[in-house]
Write a structure and sequence with these properties.
The protein is an alpha+beta fold. The protein contains 2 helices and 10 strands. A hairpin with a 2-residue loop joins β4 and β5. Bound molecules: copper (II) ion (CU).
Length: about 190
């Protein structure tokens, strides 16, 4: 019986050593965390934050897309003359073995009309498109959190979003209102 037991052990050990080899090649480009905070009202865009770890070579994030929302844009909040304004961001660098962070008060995603089923499921599947390997796409399910101050206020959802209410910021130069889709588009 003993020789058979040893044979059975050998298979998982082989699998482990294969994993170890992979780790030895160093950090891979990856989306390691992220979440979405819903807008205060349904007609307001949701905001997305995430963290990307860089791989062996520098790349750029050129788009974040999803099939389950009307529109996604990358923005950057910048302070000019004491006023915080948002500007569209077309690409964002991910340094080799470094990181790219989209966070409150800085770079962020704005997401319009998330599909109602995705909201109920509590997550939005998104594709992060990079400049390497003919536009490598990395898929990441972004958990969806309620708007700060909503009935579920508390924990991370209640963190200091009051200081950065997107609705009160200067979107004027981006002409977002004109393109606002019909409110029922997300409920299909
Ligand atoms: Cu924005």
């Amino acid at each position: 019986m003993k020789p058979f037991a040893l044979l059975a052990l050998a298979v998982p050990l082989l699998a482990l050593s294969a994993c170890g080899e992979n780790l030895g090649k160093g950090q891979q480009l990856n989306v390691v965390s992220g979440h979405i905070v819903m807008g205060a009202t349904p007609d307001r865009p949701a905001v997305g934050y995430f963290r990307v770890e860089g791989g062996p070579v520098p790349v750029e994030l050129v788009a974040v897309t999803t099939d389950l929302a009307q529109r996604v844009e990358m923005h950057e909040s910048v302070k000019e003359d004491g006023v915080v304004a948002m500007k569209p961001l077309l690409r964002a660098a991910v340094p080799a073995k470094g990181e790219l962070v989209f966070k409150q008060g800085g770079k962020h995603l704005m997401i319009w009309n998330i599909n109602g089923a995705a909201v109920r499921a509590g997550k939005l599947p998104m594709a992060f498109v990079f400049t390497n390997n003919n536009n490598e796409r990395i898929l990441f399910d972004m958990p969806i959190k309620p708007a700060a101050g909503g009935e579920a206020a508390g924990g991370e959802a209640a963190m200091d979003h009051s200081a950065m209410d997107h609705g009160s910021m200067d979107h004027g130069s981006m002409d977002m209102g004109a393109e606002k889709p019909a409110p029922d588009a997300a409920k299909k």
